[in-house]
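Hi support team,

I submitted a single chain yesterday and got back a structure, but I'm not sure I'm reading the token output correctly. Could someone confirm the output below corresponds to the sequence I sent? I've pasted both exactly as they appear in my results page.

Thanks,
R.
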Amino acid sequence: MGINRVFLCLSLALGVSVSLPARAQQHGDHEHGAPVEFKMPTTYKAAVREVFFRLHEIEALMAAKKLDQVHAQADVIRKVGDVAGQLALKSDSGVPRESIKEVNRAGRELAAKFDAIDKAADSGDSVGTRRVFDEMKKHADVLRRHSPKEYGCPMRCEGEKTSPKPGKCSQCGMKLQDVLSHMDHNPKHGGVFFMAPDQKHHLEGTISGKGEFRVYFYDEYTKPISAEKFTGEGTAWTQGKDAETPLKLRPAPEKAFLTAAVDASVKFPIRIKIFIDFKDGERPQVFDFEFAETSKPPTGHEAEVRNDREEGKYANEDAKRGH
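Hi R., thanks for writing in. Yes, this is the structure output for that exact sequence:
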């Protein structure tokens, strides 16, 4: 009992709730499938890993247009988010004492997004589901920022074995990678980020104040890849209006992205639907973007800010060609 009292007092002092996660709520008459099986994490780093794995699964479901299956994955995130603060209190969590309140708040806010993403997914609202998903990622990133890094072999030579330091796999010699790196779906250019249905490609769409729409491509570990091997086309329109204008995407001269000019008649908030051919023998994949304003590169990507001064030059060239 003495240890429990100490834990409770420390929890209250740091603003961490020690209540058990609330039971899943009933959402109207909508029926959900069976919950996914998972083991509740007992360490902070395991909790962070679980959260990002479930976000990765939701991303895959959105790409596959299987919104009806989002509920179960989001429910796991709700349960884990609720206990993140408690796990951060453990002496071996690696979370600095002064950061526990921030971690607890992020976990609670992440868990609180369950109702919003569940409602959006249940209604088949792909754009709304994406919007809530992006909000969830921001809270999850706070949790990851305070989690000790783990490195593992990308070939899983030793199963789930990880190392606290980078190095090489003792079995195959490959460089160990951050186990969360392939789950990093944060926009690199301040745009809207997607996982492709093949789960091997990622892409990000941005739009500038001059009406230039760009699509950047990444591999399964979110490393940039050349855009020259892909083609695409689509349409753009002002949200709430029916008039659509065509988009013909083409590689930028440096092959870093595909680009197209959005017609000047299209105003914010802007909706864009594109069809990307990954040249894999499959049909072009569909991606829906929603932009309330121009894309702004996140902190740490100041180079993109400088590049923004050049944005529009490709769009202007397209306009001259009549595209």
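A quick pointer for reading it: Residues 17-25, 319-323 have pLDDT under 50 and may be disordered. Let us know if anything else looks off.

Best,
Support desk
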